[in-house]
Design brief:
The complex is a heterodimer of chains A (173) and B (433). In chain A, 32% of the residues lie in helices and 19% in strands. Chain A is built from 5 helices and 7 strands; from the N terminus they run H-E-E-E-H-E-H-E-H-E-E-H. Helices cover 4% and strands 43% of the residues of chain B. The chains are: A alpha/beta (173), B mainly beta (433). Chains A and B meet through helix 1, helix 2 and helix 3 of A and helix 1 of B.
């Protein structure tokens, strides 16, 4: 509990960005830069359980979306390309949704030919802990477990700048 | 964690709790504001089945009958439920199902739209998955169903949108005017543009047929629900969020002086200059009083991306609006999902959420003097709560509703009656402008 409160305070008191400043076209919000990401323990659409304890040393991208969100659909193809490009690296990409109808999500995924995993945040608790208030919102977590960027609205996630930002977070390859 | 770190954390925890405790200062219920006072009645709890539910849709008719509708997931199917109850009754009856089993609701993220006509006819509006969708996302058809026997049963729905496009017809709302005409609004993607359009249609025969669909405007923000209201003389007002060049999202309102056949160009309400390319998913809320003043409450983040709940009025049928005023005053939380109800005397109830990473509250402010002053924000929930809404009639009665996690992890709908008492004592409250 204390950890979440600390996150909350940090979200509203941290104003300085660092890496995001060098990637202006990504328009990453500096508001929560370097706050610790909350623990995640959620099921996936395919029935696995994802525990953020397994994320150590990885760059993690959490993309919050919903089946009814048109702009979310716009950026999904670039998310898929990013996933395919970096999946062999210390990189994890998850779509996170509070939609509850798994068949609809599966149909959506199939329709757009997407393959990255979907986390089911059915109660919306993870979205709340991360102050996700609009969709799509994408949170970029570094190997240190801290939040290094927040993108509100769709982006071109396999653009050279987005890839460079993520690779910079990964550190030397 | 070391002892030193724990002490620091506890200090921060204490400070945080102190901050949270002042977010929603309470007021004395019954405090005199203008020439009326407000009294909260006994809460009633609507327990749901095991499936997830949408927030509640709420209406309160002139006989003091409460009408509630919501969407509920049952075995991965989404059904529309409805019940009604006199405010004076303690027990709530079992709900009835509105939709036929082959006309399911399309989603849970917002409740069905609900309206009561002057002859006590009950209307429920919801998008159902398009029969030819074949997996295409967002494809829906808009359904209108009605009850002509006081809510004992609902007739099979009729289709509102008059096109065949396999695309989105949703984010809908409806109201009835004093003559009984049903006014329906929604976001419609039939033209296949990146930004869809705001559409309207009417039913002038108590929901038997729907008029030709009319496009009000293009470039509608894709997932902020529309809102429609009428004044005592049948002027129709529609509000939605419009996308301007540069992805600027503005809450706008258009009026119809011919009973909804045509609309004047949209007028920007608050000039928020909020630049955002995604889904705010937050509608404006409209109200009109007996003198024709139009009230708008809405969420925006403005040019500085700071979430806020705002309020404005118009005394010239929406041609111009007063400077917006911020209703939320909390620090360390962000306000969300405002809903408003206004009665003929201009008594206003506004209810919204206040969110932080660990809390989710529902708060209310009210005005008894047509929006000149508002009460201090008052927290309404005890446990974690969301999806607030409010309804009011012209008899000095109102009901607030929200979902609350009373018995974790299940959510219940809480119904909070409110009554206004007229008297002559005056006392000033928070001056907001």
């Amino acid at each position: 509990m204390t950890r979440f409160l600390l996150i909350g305070l940090l979200l509203f008191t941290t104003t300085n960005s660092h890496a995001a400043d060098t990637f202006p076209s990504l328009m990453l919000s500096p508001r929560d830069n370097m706050a610790h990401a909350p623990a995640v323990d959620l099921p996936t659409l395919s029935g696995k359980t994802i525990d953020s304890k397994d994320w150590a040393g990885h760059v993690v991208v959490l993309n919050f979306w919903a089946t009814w969100c048109g702009p979310c659909k716009e950026e999904m193809p670039s998310m898929e390309r990013l996933y395919r490009r970096l999946q062999a690296r210390p990189f994890k990409l998850f779509a996170v949704t509070s939609d509850i109808r798994r068949q609809d999500i599966a149909t959506f995924w199939q329709h757009l030919d997407l393959h990255f995993p979907v986390l089911l945040d059915e109660g919306g608790d993870l979205a709340q802990k991360l102050w996700v208030r609009t969709l799509p919102t994408t949170i970029l977590i570094g190997p240190d477990g801290r939040i290094h960027g927040r993108a509100m609205g769709p982006r071109d996630w396999d653009s050279p700048e987005a890839v460079a930002f993520i690779e910079q977070l990964m550190g030397p390859f | 964690m070391t002892i030193k770190t724990q002490k620091v954390s506890l200090k921060i925890l204490a400070l945080t709790m102190l901050c949270l405790s002042v977010l929603v200062p309470s007021i004395a219920i019954g405090e005199n504001l203008g020439t009326s006072s407000l009294h909260l009645g006994k809460k009633r709890i609507l327990k749901h089945g095991p499936g997830k539910t949408s927030g509640p849709a709420l209406q309160l008719d002139e006989q003091g009958i409460l009408h509630v509708a919501w969407t509920e997931a049952t075995h991965d199917q989404l059904h529309i439920n409805y019940l009604q109850s006199a405010l004076s009754e303690d027990l709530l009856p079992n709900p009835i199902q509105v939709n036929p089993s082959h006309q399911l609701a399309a989603s849970l993220h917002e409740p069905p739209a609900l309206a009561i006509g002057p002859q006590q006819e009950i209307y429920v509006l919801w998008p159902t998955p398009h029969p030819q969708a074949a997996g295409k996302p967002f494809a829906s058809v808009l359904n209108l169903s009605r009850s002509m026997n006081g809510g004992q049963s609902f007739l099979p729905p009729i289709r509102v949108n008059d096109d065949e496009a396999v695309t989105g017809h949703s984010f809908d709302h409806l109201t009835t005017d004093p003559d009984g005409t049903v006014h329906i609004t929604w976001i419609d993607a039939r033209e296949g543009k990146k930004d869809p359009a705001t559409y309207t249609a009417r039913s002038m025969d108590q929901g038997s047929t729907i008029t030709k669909n009319v496009k009000i405007d293009d470039s509608t923000c894709v997932c902020c629900r529309t809102s429609v209201a009428t004044n005592p003389h049948g002027v129709v007002y529609v509000a939605w969020r419009k996308v301007y060049s540069g992805n600027i999202r503005e809450t706008v309102m258009a009026r119809s002086k011919d009973g909804g056949q045509s609309f004047d160009p949209a007028v920007i309400v608050g000039h928020d200059q909020w630049v955002f390319a995604g889904c705010p998913h937050r509608p404006a809320s409209l109200g009109v009083d007996g003198q024709g003043r139009v009230y708008v409450a809405w969420y925006t983040e403005g040019a500085d991306e700071t979430p806020g709940v705002y309020f404005s009025t118009s005394d010239d049928h929406g041609a111009t609006f007063t400077a917006k005023t911020m209703l939320n005053s909390s620090k360390g939380t962000f306000p969300d999902h405002p809903q408003m109800a206004v009665d003929a005397k201009g008594r206003i109830l506004v209810i919204w959420e206040e969110q932080s990473p660990v809390r989710r509250e529902v708060v209310m402010r009210y005005s008894l003097d047509r929006g000149q002053t508002f009460s201090a924000p008052q927290k309404l929930n005890i446990k974690k709560a969301h999806h607030p809404t409010v309804a009011i009639n012209h008899q000095g009665q109102a009901v607030l509703a929200w979902q609350e996690q009373i018995a974790f992890p299940k959510w219940s709908t809480v119904l909070q009656p409110i009554s206004f008492k007229d008297h002559n004592t005056q006392r000033t409250t928070t001056q907001i402008r």
